[in-house]
Amino acid sequence: MTRTTQMIQYTPSGNRHERKERRRDESGAGKQSWVTPLHRLAEIADKRLGEPRLGREWGSKEPNSLRGPHRLQPAPHRASTMTFAAAYPFITESGLGHEGTYIGSDVFGSGAFSYDPWILYDKGVISGPSIVVIGTVGTGKSMCGKSLVARSITLGRKAAVASDPKGEWVAVANAVGGKVISVGPGRSARVNPLDAGPRPSALTETQWQAVVRQRRRHLVVALVSLMREGTPLRPIEHTALDMALMETVAQNSNPTLPMVLDHLLNPSKETIGLVGKDGGLAVSHSLRRTVSGDLEGMFDAPSTVAFDADAPMMVMDTSALIGASEQALSLAAACGATWLEAAVTNPDGGKRLVVYDEGWRMLADPYMLAKMSEQWRLARTYGIANLLIMHKVADLNEIGDSTSGHRQKALGLLTEADTRIIYRQKHDAMRLTKEALGLTEAECEHVENLPKGVGLWKVGNRSFIVANRVTTDELEVFGTDHRMVP
Q: What predicted TM-score, i.e. pTM, was given to this entire model?
């Protein structure tokens, strides 16, 4: 028996299922009669439609037929990065703009990354000028801070380092034409923490005296509290200390700590009538350490140096105290910071970066924490940008547990900073870092694997991965591991 194959007529009308059923009906009993090679169907379609075939494409060219490829070759299109970012907004960040201090390159955007807290605040990108830099040892956090400060100075900004316990900022100050005040055993510089400092033009003499009186009172109370390892003063001791300070200021236009100590040891009749003869005795023993103890010769005489408000950078070098007790370092930091504050917080002093290196030490000190909190709140009024540099958020665990008010206050400085720069962190430190700095899961994953010199910048609500670029000359000044290099 011979099987015949009948060629069906290709009808492109109707949908695919209808055409398939029609072919089956026309094929009759022959199960294979409806199977027609595709190239034959294409030829039939071309013949019916009177259209020539284009290359090797097959299938009907009717609008309703979705058979066969339709190769498109659009012309190339060029556009600026601004236009491209608008057309494809989810590919990469457009950056913060070219205004400000050049930091390095945006790893994902492949463009230059510049930053200036005052410009970004004016544009509404950030709500405050304070900055926090966090990174473990050897990740590049110090290099980042020094790059930001030194390059900002070339753009007309100023800088001040309240306490430099490792002496790392001395070379930076010398490189930018700044001034360094070195205090410590054997150093010739004397700094009087009770100096009034320059009076802001906006304050009257009466208003300024009230500010200076309050500032001096806070300092002497802080010094005594530090010597007593945080034990608060009794009300009678507060009165004795306040009376000694008031009498010292009344008798001397340039009061010093030894003068206050003398009034505590030899109280006036008015003071004895209020607190008794021995009311200020315990306070005097605590204050004596700044005069004849391990801080002798640093903060116990009229200043032999002055804060130069016109200098591009001022550094209080306390590296000579390395190896001293923690209390000695805290006392030096408190005295230096108070003396520096009198000049830094002057609104007439211009825009200035105030650096707090070794931030864990500063945050652990109740007096320094109080000063930093005040400057965080009043930064916009003073026209300053605070720069806090520390190793990791977990350092706050040394201050106290989660219920500690001191720890919560320190943590508040990190969360209130609208610019957060995070260099590589170890995995076990990421949980606290994520919670304190508001990182996403993706950002945490990046932070754990960042190479040296690359950090995550969270500026307001925007995030960038930035590689800090430094020149050979800058590396010689900013580097901190010269002794590790063979």
A: 0.74
